[in-house]
Amino acid sequence: MNEIKFSNLGLKDTLLKSIDELGFKEPSQIQAEAIPAAIAGHDLIGQAQTGTGKTAAFGCGIINSITKKDGLSAIILAPTRELAIQVNDELRRLSKYDNLSILPVYGGDPISNQIRTLKGNVNIVVGTPGRVLDHIKRGTIKLDKIRFLVLDEADEMLNMGFIDDLEDIIKQLPSERQTLLFSATMPEPIKKLAKRYMKPDAKHIAIKKTSMTVSKISQSFFEVSHKTRFEALCRVLDFDTPSSAIIFCRTKKGVDELVEGMQSRGYVVEGMHGDMSQAHRLRTLKKFKDGSLNYLIATDVAARGIDVEGITHVINYDLPQDVESYVHRIGRTGRANREGTAYSLVSPKEYSMLKQIKSVTKSDISRKAIPTVNEIFNSKSSSILEDVTNTINDSDYSRFIPIAKELSEKFDNIEIIAALIKSKFNSELLENYKSNVLEAPKSEDIRLFLSVGRRDGITPKSLVNFIKDTARIKATSIGDIDILENFSFVNITPDVKDKVIEKCIGRKLNNRKVNIEIANRKRK
Fold this sequence. Notes:
Blueprint (H helix, E strand, L loop, with lengths): L12 H9 L7 H11 L4 E4 L6 H10 L10 E4 L3 H14 L7 E4 L5 H8 L5 E4 L1 H10 L9 E4 L2 H6 L3 H9 L6 E6 L4 H10 L5 E4 L10 E7 L5 H12 L4 E4 L3 H12 L5 E4 L5 H13 L4 E4 L1 H4 L9 E4 L6 H8 L9 E7 L4 H11 L4 E2 L5 H22 L6 H10 L2 H16 L17 E5 L9 H12 L6 E6 L4 E5 L4 H8 L3 E2 L2 E2 L2 E3 L6
Helix pairs in contact: 2-3, 3-4, 6-8, 10-16, 16-18, 19-20
């Protein structure tokens, strides 16, 4: 499987160009087997664990077969808002040079905006079953030209009570469509669904579950926003001062920009990606191996095959597209029974990917606060004190004593020591930070449990209107909505939590009294 490349799978040039820019050269097993089957027109059941690259497996097949002028050609159903957004983002990147229009639709987002966009030329809709069905009933999603239906994480949609919605949607689609079903497990209801609505000759691709363990590596993440990501990295490096670290970016452009930014601030760093010549990459790798280069910035593809002893840190400047890549990345530290450290810089948009990584790898990835300037100062001071102590104890510094005597005749000894320490401190602190504490990103939504569900006739629209009107908050403060048979989950922004709980508890929705509690975060 390692010898297969995307260029061997029958993909068109525009799609290959997008894949190359994303830094992917070799497809995962599910991609290598599913893409040719999808291009050949087969219905497909893809059974593979989360994090194996399923989005590209079905996305490439669809993008390869449609053009912008084809109109609405594909509907992709996902169990949660987060996954719908994640799939939408990846398909946009894959279809960059095909200029396809892709729209995510889910509860909690104003439906009027979605309707307005659907009146234009949308090629692919990615959405949660409830909201997609709502649009079909309104006539805002036209089904006559649908050629592809994708059920992503079908077992999760079953667990969340969407099986009836799925059947309602499938029954209304053209019979000649191509159906692609992806699921980590195949419970009996999903098998029955596949048998009922997929062609008898559907291909079944089952990828053996592999162990993704990273037990010897200490893993943490830092919450960042887009504008603070670079400074957060600098602060982490200045605080930890890794002796040897690989910093991963998702794209070649990202590598180039980060190298330029860090070099301009004095860090000893170079980059590696697929556009660089083999000779250049070998020279860079040699510098990294012999220790003359502290930090190597690389894409996943460029870093494959790198086996360097003594890498103390792996830092994910961008989270990867799948869990396998995360495991491969951080596995470059903590080798030969040594301790290793893996850090990830995570923005609010990347929380869902972080949850996937935690779930699949069964890892404890703890949140760490971005170091303050005072903490960096204290860390550097301890390091300098240790260096000076070691020099006094172990080194021959006699040739410098005449300089020290000359200075002591002009200045107080304490002032001399302080000035020398300041000089060393300034040479090691490469970034001129403007504030002690780095601004934190916007807080993640609060997830609420509500004691009403599908049996009570609850819909995403009625739930949004109930919360919005009862608590007198804006609809934009309401996020992801999951309606199950007997209860529901709703995400809200932290600033309206108290108001929603105070105003809505005990009120009636569809003649049923509503109880509300703060829920445990949903699994991914």
